[in-house]
Amino acid sequence: MPTAPQTTDELYQALQENDRRPYGRARTIAAEELVEAAELFTEPVPLVDALFELQEAYTYGSEPRKSPVVFARLLTLFDEQPDVFDERLRHLLFWRFKWVANALRALPEIPLTSLRQWLTEMGDRYEKAGFGLQPYYGQAYQLAAHLGDDTTLAYELWAGRTRTPLSDCEACEICERALYHLAAGDDERALRTWEPVLAGKESCQEEPVRSVSYALLPLLRTGRTDRARELHLAGYRGCRRNPSMSGEVGRHLEFCALTGNEARGLELLAENRSLFDEVDSTLDLFDFCTGVEVLLRRVELLGHGQLPAAGYAGRTWTVSGLRAEVRGRADDLAARFDARNGTTAHTDRRRARLDRAPLRDALELTLRTRSLDNVAAVAPAAVPAAPAAAAVPESLPELIVRARVLDEQGHPDARACWVRLRTLVAARDYAHPDDPAVGTLVRLRADLLYDEASRAGEKDEFADAAALHEEAAGLYDDAGAPGHAALARAAALLAAAEIPAEGADGAEAKAAALTAAHASVVRLHEETPGLTPYQESRLLRLRATALGLRLQASRSEEHVASAFAEVDLLHAFATRHEIVGQISGARLLRASTYAVSGDLPAATTEIDALIEALEAHGPAWHLPRTLALRGRIQLGLQDAQAAHADLAEALRLAAGWSADVVDAARLHGELAGACMHLGRPDEALRHLTRSAELDLRHGSRTDAFCTYSNAAQLSLDLGRFEDCIALLDSLLADPAVTAGELDDRLVAQLRLTRARALHAGEDLRAATAEFVALAAESAGWDDDPGSHAMIAAETAALLGESGEFGRAREAADQALAAHARAPRYEQLSDCLRELARLQAQHQGPDGLADALAHLAEAGRIADEARAAGYKPRGRSLETALAYEHGRVNAYAGEYEAALAALERALALLGEPAEGDRADEWAECVRLAGAVEGIYLERPAPALTRLDAAVSHLTALGHTGESEPLTSLAARLRDEE
Question: Are the C-beta atoms of 254 and 264 separated by less than 8 Å?
Fold first, then answer.
């Protein structure tokens, strides 16, 4: 707190500001300082309010030891100065007797006699004050349940009594009743009892988060897996990193452990690592540690005890090491509670949780499904496991010869041979065979470098590929293999030409680089004597590829003929020498050249013939790649069904080979596009996440996160808010993100989508906080003011929705300043109109002046857009503005001005015609009718307007849009 409040008004303002902070150490410290400030005033009421705020901070900040101390001060003040406590303060005081009972139960060092004495004190005080005893019996029941006593009588004494104004809220009482049935083994009755809370009909500070954590396993046991998944995602978000809900976090970890989601459990544990040190409530810590141990025990049983795990601060942990530590501490906590209580209840409950068998082998919880194999002790991205292991010769000479033969054929099994050889050659005891058929070690090292360079090129790491190819060429020269050296140098030239050029016209620069590379490869081809047919065909393939890539970069018609000429040279040469792989390669290049040049029918004809030939004569490993190309061409022809069939078949066939014969990640992405065209978004979502997983496995992290970002946006568009948030939470907790290794703008996009999902999921506070942070960060994006304008505009709208109109105006001003540099007409207009509506709606006539100022600014934006020739996506900005003038004036009680504005909006919209969207026009008519007929009390013209609109809409077949108008007309007639 910068300065202590000097007046009671300043104190209460500081108390209100602190109340808006999240529970935690910062809020607690501020509350402590405010109590110190309140003690300086002569009036006792500010001190009472400050003490209540401090007790709340302790209670929900998980510091139960301090809560009873604060309450003792309050109780003393009440006993000494009862008149200070008005009805509100008196209610708060007696309500918080229950808080103290809960706090004392959570501390095993508090003797059982003290717990009982407190309950007696509570009962006596309630009775003396004339309050009903149902809350007292509720606490007596909770103590019996805590002790492990027979709770039947205690439950009846509580649950059978009528609720009072001091009873726990409905949601909390529902949870206690459900837990009673759960303890009795009746899952179905417990879930029926819980339903109002789980459905969101009853809620409070702790609910439904607390109930959700307990209901997860009963839901699984009764077969409601989808509901359990849905509640896990929403419920975990409500309790994560919250010290006062560490027990709930522990139950979510247990849920992960029992559903085959151990990897997600470890991820959530890492996110909540701070709870090991922040939780002061012994009972909450006991629940948390037991849930942690359930997870770690399961991971260890699956053979992954050496995986890293996030545990107590100050050292690194493995799963096994952390489990041993947690087990010791949790056993001690259970023993302490049992010693205090004189029962074995906590040890027994702990053992029951640890002994539970998994309830599902694999329940897909999130869009980013991970296994324990993915949770390696951070290492370079692994090469993906092959679908089927290729057989490699045991004999070293045979292995070398086999690798070269397969490589010449372009066979995918060559990769397994090179991988095996790379391992053997890297060994310290490697001895190269003395065999003329094998050649020298230098030649073999050149082959391995060439293969490594090819893999780098496949991952678009062109600079590395070029360097490796050059190095391989040097070794081939040393080995006396000029033909292979020429191939390596040609490949290096092509890779170097593909290195992205910096500058405005990257496409032109790339086309020029490819032209130069092609000329150099042609010279190399012509100047290298003694080439074998295989080597010459590969050089021709590189030449054709260079010109194909040039056409793809330039899209210039002048480059088409030369690209086809090189393809024809390759095809003729390969046919003459019967090089089967290069024949089909040439035909595939021809089809893709037709496609790039825009002749899709010719591309289809060529590729259909090629597929027929491949199915009849092979090589079979070319078929997946060819089907994939035909699928892309079908997408270009708008035949999504045929595209989906080809792409899916390409994936199916590729799975039968020992190495990737197609870019499976790309195929899944294209299948996602086909699915969207076919109206199958859920299937598209699965393909997007699979594409991202494959990119990650190949080490293409940026591509993976971009695809995940698309998946998150799609899930948001589908209304799957919790799926979206859970996916983004997982991504944002990824080590690559936390270490700052990912592009900061991509991370910002992930955060922006998450903020929008939070807003869509009605978590306004969290969404606003994220938007405010993003707006502050994007203010420094001097190279992208347009994005800052968009983010600041959305931030302003959310601040307005939160009622913080001063901060909303500041954010809107930021958006306007950025808009001046990079116009975002529609976003700024939407923002200003929304702020105007919110201010008028919240403040009525008092907010009208500011609301109209926002609309005047929106009018200026509309004028700018019109002058710039900007075409909005939906209705015109002028129409939207006129309609908003109508709403704003109506909220402020200026009904004549509202009606005039709505008349302008209707004139701008015009009556809808057949095929037009009629919803906006109908809504404008409805609001005009309501203003005229209800607020201006002129029902006759309002009914004339409404009846005419209903007739017009009905004639056009817009019956749905006409229903609200019919309903309003009926109301007006009833009131006449």
Answer: no
d(CA 98, CA 707): 50
CA–CA dist 98, 373 (Å, integer): 47
**Closest-CA residue to 146 (of 176, 190, 174, 117):** 176
Q: What gap in Å lies between CA 702 and CA 460, rounded to an integer?
A: 12
859: phi then psi, degrees, rounded to nearest 5: -65, -40
* Tokens found for residue 475: 């070794």
Report CA-CA distances (Å) from 692 to 387, 709, 753.
18, 9, 17
Cβ(243)–Cβ(275) below 8 Å? yes
> If pLDDT is split at 50, 70 and 90, which confidence band does 387 have?
very low
Q: How far is the C-alpha of 662 from the C-alpha of 622, rounded, in Å?
A: 9
- The number of helices, as runs of H, and strands, as runs of E, in the chain is 47, 2
Helix (H) or strand (E) holding 318: strand 317-318
CA distance 447 to 443: 6
Residue of 104, 99, 31, 19 whose CA lies nearest to 59: 99
Task: Give the distance from CA 228 to its chain's centroid.
Answer: 19
* 746 touches 706 (CB < 8 A): yes
Query: What residue type is 222 in one-letter code?
Result: T
At 390, the pLDDT band (50, 70, 90 cuts) reads low
| Whether the Cβ atoms of residue 142 and residue 177 lie closer than 8 Å to each other | no
pLDDT band at 927 (very low <50, low <70, confident <90, very high): very high
Distances from the Cα of 181 to the Cα of 174, 203, 610, 791, angstroms: 11, 20, 68, 49
Q: What is the pTM of this model?
A: 0.84
Count of beta carbons in the 10 Å neighbourhood of residue 422? 15
**Averaged confidence pLDDT in the chain:** 93
Strand ranges in 811-858 using DSSP code E only, listed in sequence order: none
Residue type, 878: E
For residue 619, say if its preceding peptide bond is cis, omega within 30 degrees of 0: yes
691 CB neighbour count, 10 Å cutoff: 27
The secondary element (H helix, E strand) that includes residue 317 is strand 317-318
- 3-state SS, residue 98: helix
**Of 760, 847, 761, 754, nearest in space to 800 by CA:** 847
Q: 5 by DSSP, 3-state: which? A: coil
Q: Are 697 and 381 in contact (CB under 8 A)?
A: yes
DSSP at 459 = T
- Looking at residue 933, the DSSP 8-state letter turns out to be I
Q: How far, in Å, CA of 723 to CA of 365, rounded?
A: 9
Q: How far apart are CA 828 and CA 839, in angstroms?
A: 16
CA-to-CA distance for 414 and 478, rounded, in angstroms? 24
Six token digits for residue 902 = 């709505």
- Euclidean distance between CA atoms 719 and 731, whole angstroms: 19
DSSP output for 270-308: HHTTTHHHH---HHHHHHHHHHHHHHHHHHHHTT-TTSE
Q: What average pLDDT score do residues 442-446 get? A: 96
Residue-level pLDDT at 882: 95
> Using CA atoms, how far apart are residues 723 and 729, in angstroms rounded to an integer?
10
| Six-digit token string for 209 | 């988060």
- DSSP assigned state of 474: H
- Asked if 398 contacts 438 with a C-beta cutoff of 8 angstroms, the reply is no
Decide if 799 contacts 811 (C-beta within 8 A).
yes
Would you list the DSSP string of 356-397? PPPS-S----SSS---GGG--SS-SPPPPPPSSPPP--SSHH
Task: Give the integer Cα–Cα distance in Å for 264 and 852.
Answer: 50
Output phi, psi for 630, to 5 deg. Answer: -65, -35
Q: 503-517, 552-566, 818-832, 930-944: which range is least confident on average? A: 503-517
What DSSP character marks residue 162? P
CA atoms of 826 and 369, how far apart (whole Å)? 38
